[in-house]
Amino acid sequence: MMTLTFASPPQNKSDLETGPAFTPRFDEKGLITAVVTDAGDGALLMVAHMNAEALALTLETGVAHYYSRSRRRLWKKGESSGNVQAVREIRTDCDQDAIWLKVSVAGHDATCHTGRRSCFYRTVGVDEGQAKLVITDDERHFDLKQVYAES
């Protein structure tokens, strides 16, 4: 249960950018963007969204929680796969409308639901005038059918 609450962002830009208060600026849907990297090697793992409850639970428990826009519900990362994200550090950007989580991933060391370490396993390029995707990391860290059989 969430006990932590967040004050409204200050009107003064200087206070927002240099003051000591963490006052996240949630968007009109009540969400803030979360960029997630590996605390050890800095690899980009995923981008997700948090509502106030997910952010508070993350701060209170030290385990990453997010808000699923497609499922419209709170979820603890790794609750199905076992790839729980232990939060090592949280940073916010200058105007507090995005956060950066540095995490250690338990389980299979995979963040993506496809079984890959990162959700960013494809590059975007142009081939014969068409935008194309190229898979650059096809290593699966777990068997999807086995891990998600009960989900």
Shape: globular
Number of helices: 3
What number of domains? 1
CATH T-level topology:
Ubiquitin-like (UB roll)
Oligomer: single chain
Strand order of the largest sheet: 2-1-6-5
> Roughly what percent helix?
10-25%
Radius of gyration over alpha carbons? 17 Å
CATH class: Alpha Beta
CATH superfamily: Phosphoribosyl-AMP cyclohydrolase
Give the low-pLDDT segments: none
The CATH architecture can be named as Roll
- Estimate what percentage of residues fall within beta strands: 25-35%
Number of strands: 8
Largest sheet: 4 strands, mixed
Distance between the termini: 23 Å
Give a short synopsis of this structure:
The chain is an alpha+beta fold and 151 residues long. The chain has three helices and eight strands.
